[in-house]
Design brief:
The protein is mostly helical. The chain has helices at about 10-25, 30-45, 50-65, 70-80, 85-100, 105-120, 130-145, 150-155, 170-185, 190-195, 210-225, 230-240, 250-265, 270-285, 295-305, 315-320, 330-355, 365-370, 375-385. The model has no long low-confidence stretch (mean pLDDT about 95).
């Protein structure tokens, strides 16, 4: 006989004990468990992995069969402590117990079971997929209860972007949920952190259209709070360039395109903004030629694309400023900010136009050309000079 007893099999004992334990559990669950536990130890100590898995599963099933949910949780914790090094056993036990989540008699029992499974799966790479799903389900229950803080805390630190056991679609869906919950909680720092996890190349692929649209809508909500017109315009334009479907029609494309133009005209002028403005203008007669884009929005775009002074209020300005896009996510304070920003963009456009045609001009003459008081003129010239948007000699 070898001096090294690495593995023994207890198949005969297991086959005899399991039916006996099942019958005994109908009168005494404690006695049934007491019958099985020594056998579980034998299998574990002697590395009988297959029978250890079967015995552990049977312990879980005994508790479920008599609807003793507290004992089930206790048994899961015990198996976790004893068999944490046995991957196949824990994987099978977690899969078995997860099936019971839809069979629980109440939400409270479900939460307790989820918490136990969370403890069992946490920190185990081979159970990372199951762990992510458990956190997700638990967070959803907390949200339904109105406890956003606990929902966010539950799902916050699950780094699904590093999980190899989840598909790219599952990862994207999970990150969307992390962003959404933090937006509801108004934790904008966390929103920014989770948003950076999203692989934007992936969501441009076929089959990810719904995820792409949902992601950029969340980004629009976030950047509206941040009062970042440029990023809002970018997000709307991404949505407008999404393949149509039964749920995302040409009307949705048109609305997104109009919103992209509106916020693009509200964004500060730089090389990127200027380039996008002309690309969007060109796309109206190419990519989006079949759309009936709001005439007032198109007119405003054409005004900014020309090197001509914009007389404010221009024709259709009232309709442009009353476009439904403005009110989608903005609070009254944010809406007021964007209106003011648009007015500033008109003034800055006019100053750039004058600078293009005049080498020298008096403040009086400049104010008369663009209909601006001396104080307002000095204010805007100072700002544009400071930011480098205009060189004042």
């Amino acid at each position: 006989m070898s001096t090294f007893e690495g593995k023994k099999e207890f198949t005969a004992e297991v086959q005899a004990a399991l039916p006996e334990a099942t019958a005994l559990s109908q009168t005494s669950l404690e006695d049934a468990i007491a019958l099985i536990l020594p056998l579980e130890k034998k299998c574990r100590v002697n590395n009988d992995h297959n029978n250890l898995r079967e015995v552990s599963l049977h312990l879980v099933r005994l508790c479920r069969n008599v609807n003793d949910w507290d004992k089930l949780n206790a048994m899961l914790s015990l198996i976790n402590k004893r068999s944490s090094q046995y991957k196949s056993t824990l994987t099978a036990v977690v899969a078995e117990a997860s099936e019971y989540l839809e069979q629980v008699p109440s939400v409270a029992v479900k939460v307790d079971l989820l918490k136990t499974l969370k403890e069992v799966t946490d920190g185990k790479i081979y159970l990372e997929g199951e762990s992510a799903k458990i956190h997700f389900t638990l967070a959803k229950i907390y949200e339904d209860r109105g406890d956003l803080t606990e929902a966010c805390n539950t799902i916050q630190d699950v780094h699904v972007e590093t999980y190899g056991s989840l598909t790219r679609q599952q990862k994207a869906e999970y990150i969307l949920e992390q962003i959404r919950l933090n937006l509801l909680k108004k934790d904008y720092i966390r929103v920014a952190i989770h948003s950076r996890k999203m692989n934007q190349k992936t969501i441009e692929e076929a089959g990810f259209e719904d995820i792409k649209i949902r992601f950029y809508k969340l980004q629009i909500e976030f950047y509206t709070h941040e009062r970042n017109s440029w990023e809002i315009a970018q997000a709307y334009y991404k949505i407008a360039n999404t393949k149509t479907s039964e749920t995302f029609t040409t009307e949705n494309v048109q609305a997104a395109l109009e919103a992209a133009i509106i916020y693009l005209l509200t964004a500060p002028r730089d090389n990127h903004q200027h380039d996008m403005l002309h690309r969007v203008k060109a796309s109206l007669t190419a990519t989006f030629k079949d759309l009936t884009v709001n005439v007032h929005v198109v007119h405003a775009l054409q005004l900014f694309a020309k090197d001509e002074i914009i007389v404010s209020p221009f024709a259709g300005q009232a309709e442009f400023l009353s476009h439904t896009t403005w009110q989608l996510f903005a609070t009254p304070e944010e809406l007021s900010f964007f209106y003011d920003e648009f007015a500033v963009r008109v003034i800055e456009h006019n100053l750039r136009v004058v600078a293009k045609y005049y080498e020298r001009i008096s403040l009086g003459r400049l104010g008369a050309l663009i209909k601006l008081s001396r104080d307002d003129l000095e204010h805007h010239l100072s700002n544009m000079s400071y930011t480098g948007a205009l060189v004042v000699g």
